[in-house]
């Protein structure tokens, strides 16, 4: 899959604000500051279409992008930011549950984790939540450039084990800095949307 075009569609909180066209959709999720915006910008070849967060946990809307006029990327707000209030956390939870359980054209979720550390409790909960609803997941372990190559394999194994990854889900080594894993991730997305 080569991305030649991307445009911002809309931001949404409630289902009636989601785009109504029935295009295949890929959601991208991860804890705040994991590198989600950087990964999205890298995939779509744009410097700043997904805003690199200066204030983690601030964006509390789902942002929809139309890619190649045929696929939608849904940038869902980051989780696991310790400093947000209980109220914001609860409204986030409600918004996410509604989105992940009701979005019929959702094909797969790209869950982004930091390769350097074992997946956090929040990462584990998110993955288990997606599996509970039988949503296919592609795990992208990012910031690989921050680790020596000799450690990649071991860290990937930890990600797989801690998340208790389903064998049907893919695990991709990624770096927004070096663009490593970009083609592999795009190929995986393409295969899942069947285009
Ligand atoms: P978000 O909150 O998940 O959207 O995270 P951002 O994309 O804003 O990234 C958080 C910080 O990590 C920023 O300072 C990025 O420059 C940095 N970052 C993101 N991805 C990578 C990566 O692959 N390698 C390195 N070295 N830094 C990264």
TrEMBL record:
The keyword Magnesium applies. InterPro entries: G_ENGB_dom, GTP-bd, GTP-bd_ribosome_bio_YsxC, P-loop_NTPase. Its cofactor is Mg(2+). Residues 22-195 form the EngB-type G domain. One of its GO terms (cellular component) is cytosol. It holds the Pfam family MMR_HSR1. It comes from the Bacteria. GO terms for biological process: division septum assembly. GO terms for molecular function: GTP binding; metal ion binding. Keywords: Cell cycle, Cell division, GTP-binding, Magnesium, Metal-binding, Nucleotide-binding, Septation. Necessary for normal cell division and for the maintenance of normal septation. Belongs to the TRAFAC class TrmE-Era-EngA-EngB-Septin-like GTPase superfamily. EngB GTPase family. PANTHER family: ENGB-TYPE G DOMAIN-CONTAINING PROTEIN (PTHR11649:SF13), MSS1/TRME-RELATED GTP-BINDING PROTEIN (PTHR11649). This is Probable GTP-binding protein EngB. The gene is engB.
